[in-house]
Specification:
By secondary structure, the protein is an alpha/beta fold. The protein has a single domain, classed as Vaccinia Virus protein VP39 (Rossmann fold). It has helices at about 5-10, 25-40, 60-65, 80-90, 130-140, 155-165, 185-190, 205-215; strands spanning about 50-55, 70-75, 95-100, 115-120, 140-150, 195-205, 220, 225-235.
Length: about 240
């Protein structure tokens, strides 16, 4: 089975276990992407209302809540939302709001958020363009949208599936390579929804660190052939 979204229900108790085979790579990837986004945003990182679409166990929810932002985490997995609430309460992170909802039909009014996160989600959605337009709809003019995904290339397939899933760095069946998204496709779809590209970086696995940790450890790259992160600004 590919594009196995039930994984997040089955393994929800392990979201914050950095040694969990299901989530250790997401932990390592977050350690790279959180500082990247905070560097791109600068002082904006602690401002206003932040929406995390597909928040899972709440890595970015807690990241922004600790900085004083008012955060709403949205996910279809009720078990993942419960895990996010439990962990935040256990470690004393300022409380956030949560909603069980689809990225394709957010139960939110227009222009209600100062920033929106769409991380490690788009490659799991058959109608990902609708999700980007929903993010654009709910963000205020001048607000930001941060998105990350995998590139639909042979290299992306090799690294994410043949190596990542084949060697157990990511659970087998997590991805379907045909659903990966080329940067040009994402940027064009975002532009059609009123989002202008502000920042972009490719990402590459750090080979020895990945092998040593048994989890995908990323570094910046000029090449976007595997994974990439983008920051959009609402016009």
């Amino acid at each position: 089975m590919s594009n196995d979204l039930e994984l997040y229900e089955r393994c929800s108790a392990e979201w914050w276990d950095a040694d969990s085979p299901a989530f250790r790579s997401l932990h390592a990837i977050h350690e790279f992407r959180a500082p990247l986004l905070l560097e791109w945003l600068g002082e904006q990182s602690s401002r206003g209302r932040v929406l995390d679409i597909g928040c899972g166990g709440g890595y970015f929810v807690e990241e922004f809540a600790r900085r004083g932002a008012r955060v709403l985490g949205v996910d279809l997995s009720g078990a993942s939302l419960a895990a996010s609430r439990r962990h935040a309460a256990a470690v004393g992170t300022p409380p956030s709001d949560y909603a069980r909802a689809s990225a394709l039909a957010l139960p939110l009014r227009d222009a209600c958020a100062d920033g929106v996160l769409v991380c490690d989600l788009l490659e799991h959605l058959h109608h990902w363009k609708r999700a980007i337009c929903e993010a654009a709809r709910v963000v205020k003019p001048g607000g930001w949208v941060f998105a990350t995904t995998l590139n639909r290339t042979l290299l992306g397939r090799v690294v994410a599936i043949w190596i990542g899933e084949g060697l157990g760095f990511v659970p087998r069946g997590t991805h379907d390579a045909s659903m990966f998204i080329r940067p040009g496709e994402l940027i064009e779809a975002a532009a059609g929804c009123g989002l202008a590209l502000e920042q972009q970086t490719g990402e590459r696995p750090k080979i020895f660190a990945t092998l040593r940790r048994r989890a995908v450890v990323l570094a910046k790259s000029r090449m976007t052939g595997v994974t990439y992160s983008v920051l959009f600004r609402k016009r």
